[in-house]
């Protein structure tokens, strides 16, 4: 049960602002236990002390050789483990990548998490606490240069959150929605600083469009091919008329929500001789043009020990130039943290690690 629901059971007649005071304290990285929530009474704190202050705890935190990526193995209260990643870009901005499930049921052929199968979905508290974990980590690891700056008391802030860790976020819709709403309410993150990446669960995408409580964060769709047969081969949850149905949804999404700051992103993992030919690029151009304000993000394939191979650099360049030549807005994702298996698709918790 979520902490918020446990609180409501324990204190049925308490005004709603009490829970808000507690939630606010959750996001103060120097407060590490119920005792620190001084905005509520001592009696209330005592009663709350058996509720988990944190639902995740670090088993291990790894740092990449370049020191720009950290990966944490986070243990949940039932002993399951998920991974969460902190990345720093060249401008010093911090992005965290959170997991939404333990494992994943989608079994995309190139993704390590898919190999685990689905163990369970995360509770919203377990998603929220991945953010809190990194916030506290940053607080505890303030760096020399920060300590000497005039803002020495302030740890660096997380500026973006991406739901690109383990799991399919839209297969855990309600918990992801709850976590998104909490993050937007209690942190400095605005909706365009948060991205939910999905394999494209169409019924949930439809629900999202009609749901007034779904916060309009950015959406990225893992397309990976605009050719039906190829997509079905590499993304087993795909089916014959997925692409036209997705295009129809995407047009309605952009009509309803699109503006200069709101676009859709298609992610495209570059797999040698699978989806990286000139024809594949032209199919992607045609698909994007049939929709509108879509950006493409090419992701060089990261090794996961399966049969796929990363497209050659000059192939990726050529693919990119075909898209650019057709005025498609396209970027190529920089691989980060592959030496600690923290890059896209490398998040997996092996049974023997537990
Ligand atoms: N289930 C969500 C989140 C997955 S991870 C989704 O499907 O979108 C985020 C992105 O990394 C997805 O686009 C995913 O397809 C991609 N990815 C998975 N395995 C990869 C790999 N080995 N190399 C590069 N990208 C990968």
Order of helices and strands: HHHEEEEEHEHHEHEHEHHEHEHE
Number of helices: 12
Low-confidence segments, ≥5 residues, pLDDT <50? none
Oligomer: single chain
Structural class: alpha/beta
The profile of the biggest β sheet is: 10 strands, mixed
Spatial order of strands in the largest sheet: 1-2-3-4-7-8-9-10-11-12
What hetero molecules are in the model? S-adenosyl-L-homocysteine
Descriptive tags:
binds S-adenosyl-L-homocysteine, two-stranded antiparallel sheet, alpha/beta, 19% strand, single chain, globular, 354 residues, ten-stranded mixed sheet, 12 strands, 12 helices
Structure overview:
The chain is an alpha/beta fold and 354 residues long. The chain is 35% helix and 19% strand. The protein has helices spanning 3-10, 16-26, 42-48, 112-116, 124-140, 144-148, 173-186, 202-210, 228-234, 242-257, 278-289, 313-325; strands spanning 56-63, 69-76, 81-88, 94-97, 101-103, 118-121, 158-163, 194-198, 218-222, 264-270, 294-300, 329-332. The strands form 2 sheets. It has a 10-stranded mixed β-sheet with strand order 1-2-3-4-7-8-9-10-11-12, covered by helices on one side. It has a two-stranded antiparallel ribbon with strand order 5-6. The longest helix is centred in the middle third of the chain and has 17 residues, at 124-140. The protein is globular and about 65 Å long. The mean pLDDT is 93. It binds S-adenosyl-L-homocysteine (SAH). S-adenosyl-L-homocysteine (SAH) is lined by residues 108, 110-111, 164, 168, 197-199, 222, 267, 269, 299, 301-302, 304, 344-345.
């Amino acid at each position: 049960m979520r902490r918020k629901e446990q609180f409501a059971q324990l204190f049925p007649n308490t005004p709603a602002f009490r829970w808000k005071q507690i939630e606010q304290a959750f996001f103060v990285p120097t407060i590490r236990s119920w005792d620190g929530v001084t905005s509520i009474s001592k009696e209330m704190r005592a009663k709350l002390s058996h509720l988990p202050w944190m639902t995740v705890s670090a088993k291990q935190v790894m740092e990449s050789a370049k020191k720009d990526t950290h990966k944490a193995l986070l243990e949940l209260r039932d002993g399951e483990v998920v991974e969460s990643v902190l990345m720093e870009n060249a401008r010093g901005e911090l992005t965290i990548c959170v997991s939404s499930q333990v494992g994943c049921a989608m079994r995309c052929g190139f993704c390590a998490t898919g190999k685990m199968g689905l163990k369970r979905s995360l509770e919203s508290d377990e998603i929220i606490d991945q953010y809190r974990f990194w916030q506290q980590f940053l607080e505890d690891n303030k760096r020399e240069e920060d300590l000497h700056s005039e803002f020495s008391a302030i740890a660096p802030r997380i500026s973006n959150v991406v739901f690109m860790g383990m799991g399919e976020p839209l297969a855990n819709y309600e918990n992801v929605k709850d976590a998104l709403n909490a993050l937007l309410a209690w942190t400095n993150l605005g909706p365009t600083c948060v991205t939910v990446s999905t394999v494209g669960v169409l019924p949930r995408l439809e629900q999202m469009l009609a749901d007034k409580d779904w916060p309009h964060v950015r959406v990225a769709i893992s397309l990976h091919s605009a050719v039906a047969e190829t997509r079905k081969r590499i993304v087993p949850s795909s089916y014959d008329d997925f692409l036209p149905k997705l295009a129809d949804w995407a047009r309605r999404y952009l009509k309803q929500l699109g503006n200069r700051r709101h676009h859709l992103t298609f992610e495209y993992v570059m797999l040698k001789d699978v989806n990286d030919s000139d024809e594949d690029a032209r199919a992607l151009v045609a698909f994007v043009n049939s929709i509108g304000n879509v950006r493409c993000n090419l992701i060089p394939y990261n090794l996961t020990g399966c049969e796929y191979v990363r497209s050659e650099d000059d192939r990726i360049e050529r693919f990119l130039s075909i898209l650019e030549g057709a005025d498609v807005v396209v970027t190529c994702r920089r691989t980060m943290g592959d030496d600690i298996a923290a890059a896209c698709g490398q998040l997996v918790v092996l049974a023997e690690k537990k």
